[in-house]
Automatic annotation (TrEMBL):
Catalytic activity: Hydrolysis of (1->3)-beta-D-glucosidic linkages in (1->3)-beta-D-glucans
Family to which this protein belongs: Belongs to the glycosyl hydrolase 81 family.
Limits of the Glycosyl hydrolase family 81 N-terminal domain: 2-101
EC supergroup of this enzyme: hydrolase
Compositionally biased tracts (Polar residues): 100-111, 121-132
A single GO molecular function term of this UniProt record: endo-1,3(4)-beta-glucanase activity
Domain Glycosyl hydrolase family 81 C-terminal: 135-490
The name this protein goes by in its record: glucan endo-1,3-beta-D-glucosidase
InterPro entries on file: Endo-beta-glucanase, GH81_C, GH81_N
Amino acid sequence: MASGPYNGTIRIAKLPNDMDMSVLDRHRHSWTTGGVVDHTENSYTINWKIQGKGDPLLYAYPHHIQTISNVERTTLRLESATKGTMYGVLGTRWILHEQPSTATTTNSGKNSSSSSSSSSLISWLPQQARPESSTRNDILRHLAHEIETSDYNEDTNKNDNYFSGKALQKYAMLALLLNRPQETSLHNPELAQLALDKLKFAFAVFLENRQKDPFVYDRVYKGIVAQSGLPVAMGGTGNIHAAFGHSYYNDHHYHQGYFVVTAAVIHYLDPSWRTNEISVWTNSLIRDVNSPGHDDDDVYFAPYRNWDWFAGHTWAGGIKVNGAMDGRDQESVPESINFYWGMKLWGLATHHPSLVQLANLQLDIMKRTTYEYFWMLNSNKNRHAGLVLNKVVGILFEQKLDYTTYFGRNPEYIHGIQQLPMTAMLAEVFRTPQFVQEEWDQRLASIISDVKSAWAGVLYLNYATINPSDAYPALKKVKMDDGQSRAYSLYLAATRPGFCRRSLSRVVSGISSSEDITIKSSLLRPIDISNNQHDDRYNGY
């Protein structure tokens, strides 16, 4: 209680152990007011702004402790809301090193050397880019069918840019496979040209901002937003939830990622096509999500809008129009990965090495935090053993974990949204065989035969990581997600290590064709999510 007006700083700290009181007392005269981040190819530094005297006492997350240097550890510990135990450290400058990789990728997508599970290993195509030889004609037939019969304009200009972007990237992958035959061994020059021409024609609608839901530059928060969710007076519908809340900065890295990947593929395959326009357009989308400028360096976009250097990952929630008591959140880790992979591809296509290095660093940090906080191996120490059995968090909020999705609580939704879009980056760097095997055995094998929706295509393509030989025939029959190409799915399965073409005689996921097979199931206990608490407030996707 103060006897009069007080002007100063009041600090509150939790004291888990009385023996730690002396540590708190020694560092009570120094506190942080902010920080500045710098980065190199394989490390990043947080330079803390402080007031007072001496080194500040700060708490570090588990992923910090694994990589941090230049600090002094203390005995203090504190349980965070959703990221496990934090550890007290002393220091004004945190230097965090990601595993340095000797691997570099050339602009052709070939690797000059190798290193285990580093994002720098992967560029445009899988490391083994040639599908198993017996599958090539099969894949070419599916490519021809999809490219020749699909209505690109109808598929890629939807009312919602998210679904438009998914379709554009789907078709971009087909063009990529066919236009790099020296790497994929998929030779059909006429089809390759048709795939690229149809892709360019569909993409031009967005390059000229003629899509059904145009983009608008917001001068208040300095970003590119969908028009549909804005007030009627500004040309929108007045529905703040339109386009998944994109007009209010939800999910920008998810939506923009699909467009950036598509633009990168087009520019890579034909650098002369509308060069200035596509460069300005794509750079603007990247800057909207991940402008690397400090303070006022980029006057048009906020720095690192979706990326959190302290958390080590992105957040999906934007402006919380209706409040957000549980804090920021993120659901779909792979769609976040997809944006940074796209940024890397754009850097390769435009010969921008600093952009490639930044993307590689952020991807490597994200892989670390993904397995600490979002996807849970059996060995995870940050989660209660009961939660580890779920294998994925679902939605990670700052204040809680929710084993659900924003669009439903079916297990195929909860796990499937962590598996798309499947790309070389996701398949070969992030979704490790160990994790895929654990998740399949503990959560998916017992439900896969009941999945009749397009989520079956997503789950089986993920399954190809550990059993490509059985996943391949399943992928020929099951329904596909609207952002998933059957031809590209077969291609990815046929490039997985250990692939062997099988003769087919059994049943997959309820399909009765004699050409199909049954996947072995561990038949563990059924998934029970009846007691999970679901927060129905709209807070990102």
